[in-house]
Every structure is written in structure tokens, then in C-alpha cells.
Amino acid sequence: MSSRPSVFGLRSLKASVFSFGLLGSAVVSTSTAVAADWIFTPFVGIREAYTDNVLSTATNTESDFITTLNAGFTLDGIGNRLNILTSYDGAYDIYANTSDLNGFRHNLLGSANAELVQDHFFIDGQIAYTPEDLSTTGASSAIDRTLSNSQTQVLNYSISPYYLQRFGGTAVGIARYRFSQLRFDETDVGGAVDNPGNETTNEVNLILESGRNFSRTSWSLEAFGVDTVVEDGDDLKRGTFVASGQYSINRNVALLGITGYDEFDGENIDNDDISGAFIGAGVRLTPGPRTDLSLGYGYRYGGGIWNMDFSYIVSSAAILTASYVVDVGTGGQAYTNRDVLDEDGELVNTNFSNSDFVGTTTKYETFDVGIRGTRGLNGYSAGATYEKRDFLTANTNDETVSFFGFYSRELSPKLGLSVDGSWSKIIEPETPGEAETTIRAGAALNYRFGDNFTGSLAYNYYDRNADIAADNIKENVISVSLNKSF
């Protein structure tokens, strides 16, 4: 649930949230906050693609040519008290034979942080507005394009002002309010989609943690309340108090401890089963400057849970990370609690998922492992994810496992090669008999014709193999694209 959880599900102190209109009006009123270096880069592009399954059907497949016109921009604002990173890509797909699929797609990602009162008052925010397939059944494609059904335009945004106070070297206090919303809108093409209900969340968070005077011992006290309203769904209220600490035995070993109380008030669930006191203990190992492992076990949410966080710096240009976390929340909170910036500070889509969107209160168990880095002219990343979801309203569950990989190489100063692929499988479907396996693969040659002018020749493959034959889809796509930025 949380983008960067700590031991036993205690959430990160760093929230990342954004609403451009509200945040923009706030920073404009503070002249020093807008003293930033702005880099605005508009671009235009065109893509010509051939698909052998334009309607994403299991049988009687049809081919078509698709012309995509796109335009957009990236905006970077970097300053002492203001940081903004955003990108927008608007595309219009034109089908040679299947003209009823002609339509627009919008992809907007953004993140911002502003310091309104020096050292004390800040505001964070983020936004993601993207077309998504919220169901693993229905139409899907090897490339981004308009579809005949199942596609939804998802708006996921949040804004979070907070106040920070340092009490000398003894403690640091943070008082934060966070507003987030997840909305599901119809696209302008394709069949009608039964969208989930929109979700609105208000959250108050109070934190007091140890200051610089504590060397061998560190501690944190946190109290937060969450109120999520789901249209035509199950609302969820939550109040939690957490006390956690770390005691360093030596430079390589530290003991971890946590205790607190959860109180859930959700509709159509057994609140007593997941509410109550919790406790846990663990160990943090740092055998060297490149390795950091935290491992713990405790009792929370009505049962025993593990928690793990691991990082290993393979080299100056590569890092290996892994985590295992358990949390409880609504289906929408699984999206709004994700960070739109990755570990490298790059924008990523927070609305994508390998599993169906389920808008009920859910207990999540998630394991992630990944490696990323560069070596000479090569760049690479790979990883795996396992997720188990217990749907507390229906007393059902599902399990999904997925793997991904990416590789790029600079063949010459102007020519580059990239290859990517992913494999995901619903190994335990919520409804028996609806398991499926999905494979995606692609390769591209990218050529730089001149400054800010690039071209690409790409091949993409998609294969969904489901227990229900009508949900099977295979598609091959060949495309050529040109892009010019200014």
C-alpha cells in the first residue's frame, strides 16, 4: 500500500502528493519560492503502426494500420524552495479501417514540492492521469492505443500541506494533512465501461521522532486518521497510533521494535478481526556500507506478519532492492499511496497494475525485488513482484506473480537498441477458473537524426492465455515513429 513502508507496515514519513492548481496558486504568493530554473520542452510526434488484431479478439482477428499524432511537453522547475517535474503527452489515434476506434488518449504525470515558510511550512503534491485497463479481461494491446472496450481514463491526484518543527536536537515534529482522490472517467471511444466508484480520502498525520541528539537509539511516535468515501462502494475509516524504536548494539547490528493500536470502521467487513493492539520486533543488519537489511516479525491485522526491507549497492552504477510489506486499505488507496517518482527521481505511472482493480477493503501482502544499473554503454533493470490480496468484504482472495526485464545498449553515437519483456500470472484467481498468464515483449532501434529529432523502429508482442477461451488475445505490432522536441 505505502510506496516506501517501514517495519511492520509503519508508513513512510515522506508523502508525495500534488494538485497543480492549488499548489500553483500557493507558490505564486511566495516570491522566493518561485525563484527556480524552468526548463520547458514541447514536442510533437507521429507513429505509424500495423496490428494483426485490432479488435483484441480471441478468434476472427482483423488487421489494421494506425496513425498516431501526438504532442506534449515536459516541465522541470528546480530551485531552493520549489521543485516541479511534470510531463504531458496527448495522442490521437486514426485507424485506416476501424474508424470507430479513432480517439484521444491523455497521459499526464507530475510531482511537486514547495517550501512556503522557510524550514517550517511545506506542500507536496502529485498527479497521474492515464488510460488504463482496470480488468485483466476485455480488450488489451501490445502498444498504447485506443481500445474497443475495457479502457478507462484514470485521474489519481493528491495534495498535502505539512508543518515541520525542530525541538533543538531532541526531536522533530510533523503535522500533515493529505487530500487524495481517485476518479474513473469514460474514454471518448470504445464500449461503455462499468467503472468503479470514485474515491476521496482525507488524512491527518501527527509525527514526533528523535532528533540528532540520539545516536545509538532512535524512536518515533505517530498518530494518523484516514477517512475514505467510496461512491457506490464500501467506505473506510481508520485510526492508528504507532510507537517504534531502534537500538544500535554496534555499527553492524541494531534491534527494532514496534507497538501500537489500529481501529478500523469499514462497511461490510469484520472490523474487530483487523483492529486492536499490535506488536513486533526485528533486527537491522548493516555488515558493510553497501548492505542494509531490516527484518521483523509481529502480530497485526488479526494475525502474524513478516516485514522486510533490503538494499545492496552492487557497484557505483547498480543497486539491488527488495521489500515485503503487509497493509490494509481500500482498492483506491493501493493506487493513491504510490509515489509518482521512482528511486531515481523519474516519473512513473502509478495507475498501472498487473491485477484487476477491486474497489473493496483489502489486506495486501506484497513482495518486490529488483535490480537496476548501467555498465558502460549498457543499461538494464529486472525484477519480480508477488502480491496476495484478501478481499475482506467478500472473504475471497487472489494471488499474482510477475517478472519484468529491460536492456538498452548504445550501438553508436546515434543508434541505440532496447529490449523489454514481462510475464505475469494470476496463480490464485478470486473466481475459480479465471486464472490467466500474460506475456509482453518488445524491441526497438532508436536513431538520432539531429539535435532533438529522433526516430524509432519497433516490434511489440502481446499474449494473454486465459482459462476462459474467449479472453485469449494475441497481437503483433510493428511501428515506425518520429519525434521532434523544441
From TrEMBL:
Residues 1-35 form the signal peptide. Keywords: Signal. InterPro entries: CHP03016_PEP-CTERM. This is TIGR03016 family PEP-CTERM system-associated outer membrane protein. It comes from Sneathiella marina. The lineage of its organism: Bacteria, Pseudomonadati, Pseudomonadota, Alphaproteobacteria, Sneathiellales.
